[in-house]
């Protein structure tokens, strides 16, 4: 797929001297769902704000569908929809008037049928005559999404879109996101709910301390960095691990009733057969065993820990 967003050498330094972004290079493909993960203060929102033309970069270039965000701002911005973290809406306007007005801001001709479809997709049609100030927090979040979609953008940024919202909205939102992606819209999201990224994203980017340290296909990332863990349910509880088992870096769990072994499933030798033989020689019996793959959250936490230690 051809890139719809091209970021090269992007950096941001604030007047205080703080470097929010450092030499970011990133291409996002047309029609993909790209998840940007990182701890608070990592630079996620700054990066999104620059691409959307809200914050001016200190260096580097950004193009949205071939349009430079600084020299060709109007055309670039017309391609982009943004759902920010903060709920900033005109409290005294109605839902329908706000979404219709937002569409007009981008020079789009009136299209009542399209606006109605967006509001219905977001379960807002019954609230179309309500003032924004009368809406609940979840409905205001839906309202922000409707505004972002009003001008039919080809690129949609979702900055922590489901933070603090109910399960129903989260489910509706992801159903809508999948529908948009199926129609060719490129989705870039930041989220604290890593299971959402694991479920939704085609590719994952990890940003820490203003640096993009990893961009990877989700499946490839899980295979490359994911570990597996073997859990042995012991027949008798164990107070300590025998020193002869030290080479396997085992861990006791559940008050000594479980023995945990983390291993690389892609390695030529996992060490499991030799571990089980050694346990048998020592007379350590187990009732059951199971293995499970590391989650994306495990990988993310591991990356952050490695970064902080380096």
Structure description:
With 310 residues, this protein is an alpha/beta fold. It folds into 2 domains: 3-223, 3-Layer(aba) Sandwich (Rossmann fold); 227-293, Alpha-L RNA-binding motif (Alpha-Beta Plaits), CATH 3.30.70.1560. The protein is 33% helix and 28% strand. The protein is built from 10 helices and 14 strands. It has helices at residues 44-51, 73-78, 95-105, 112-121, 137-149, 167-182, 194-200, 218-225, 272-281, 296-309; strands spanning 3-13, 19-29, 33-37, 59-64, 67-68, 80-83, 155-159, 186-190, 203-208, 211-217, 228-234, 251-253, 258-263, 286-293. The strands form 3 sheets. The chain has a 6-stranded mixed sheet, sandwiched between helices. The mean pLDDT is 86.
Annotation keywords:
alpha/beta; 2 domains; four-stranded antiparallel beta sheet; 10 helices; Rossmann fold; elongated; 310 residues; Alpha-Beta Plaits; six-stranded mixed beta sheet
- Taking pLDDT < 50 over at least 5 consecutive residues as the criterion, the unreliable ranges are none
The number of helical runs is 10
In CATH terms, what is the fold-level topology of the largest domain?
A: Rossmann fold
Total DSSP E strands: 14
Named at the architecture level, the CATH assignment of the largest domain is 3-Layer(aba) Sandwich
Biggest pleated-sheet summary: 6 strands, mixed
Could you state the order of secondary-structure elements as H and E?
EEEHEEHEHHHEHEHEEHEEEHEH
User: Percent helix among the residues?
Assistant: 25-40%
Rg estimate, integer Å: 24 Å
Strand order of the largest sheet: 6-7-8-3-9-10
Which structural category fits the helices and strands? alpha/beta
Question: What share of residues are in beta strands?
Answer: 25-35%
Total domains: 2
CATH class placement of the largest domain: Alpha Beta
Mean pLDDT, to the nearest integer, reads: 86
